[in-house]
Amino acid sequence: MSDRDAVRADEELRELIGDDETLADTAAEVRAALREAEIDPAFQRRLRGQVVQERQRLIDTRGARRWPWLPRPPAAIAGLALVITVAVALVLTLVVSRVSQTRPVAVVASSAVAGLESVDPAEPVVVNFDRPMDHEAVAAALRIAPATAVRTAWSGNDLVITPLHGLAGNSPYVLTIDRALARTATGARLAADLHVVFGTGGSAIPAGPEPVPTGLPQRFVAAADEGSEAVITGGGLVIATSARSSGLSGLLRLHPDGAAEQLGPAADAICVSRSGRSLAYLLRGPGGTSIVMAAGDASGGRAVRADVDPGSPLGWIDDAEVSFVGG
Fold first, then answer.
1. What sign does the dihedral 233-113-327-193 (CA atoms) show?
2. What is the pTM of this model?
């Protein structure tokens, strides 16, 4: 609840109660509820119980006299007290409802595969939440990049994600729980998106005769800086994110004959789509980060501004979209 809403509700409460000291304790607790980020259900029940007690004490004509100048409370006064008490209960109910539905909560999601680089592509991924969640809402909020068909199931607070056809081998994956759709079991919104980032290992080799190792010729083409990545594109070209060759340095395109071309400054990450027709790499500069999407041979690059976290991998969804971790 915003400060303005809290002040307005407090003014309405003060107007309803007036100077009636018998409701002072209830009013104090309701005002305390206005300042809380979340209302505990037990606290809510206790407040409602106190409202009922106050109402009974006000309309009980057989109890102690509360108006010394009257022999007993007239029915009109008792009825007014009942109306005031019901109004207070209504304000309390509205406050509890609005606070629980509009105040986002910080939810923590963790997974045993988070940060790992060689997860078994055939195994399910389990995401644990630190509180009970709305199962259907969380399943609807699940996003996986690169996109793949999955089946979801729950075991307590654990979301079990099983790829229907397995994950791709040697690929970075990002699981995202969209805060716009996900809800806790009590209906609260999430304060932020949740992410689980991991990489898969090589796919299992099918049963059968063991393949005969093939010797690959090795040839020096460039000196790579520490942390540099390199990918092989169509036609045998090599794109290195941070290398040095023939007096050039930075993001280099290396040809099979040893020739080198500089494509730009050193890049932080690089990824080729499964088809090999698309390439993406990440550039950082004084103005922020940009993802360059280009053809498979790194030609025709187009830079798109994006807020990418340090160390984030890049991944292609078909040849249409590039996934990354930000925020």
1. positive
2. 0.40
Question: What one-character-per-residue DSSP string does 162-219 give?
Answer: EESS-PPTT-EEEEEE-TTT-BBTT-PBBSS-EEEEEEB-PPPPPSSSPPPP------
Q: Using one digit for the tens of pLDDT, what is the confidence trace for 2-51?
A: 455 556 556 655 655 555 555 566 566 555 555 544 455 555 566 566 65
Q: Which residues contact 256 (CB under 8 A, 6 or more apart)?
A: 236, 237
Helix, strand, coil content of the chain in percent (nearest 5): 25, 30, 45
DSSP state of 225: P
Q: What are the tokens at 76? A: 């009109």
Given CA atoms 314, 318, 319, 321 in this order, what sign does their dihedral have?
A: negative
Q: How far apart are the first and last CA of the chain?
A: 25
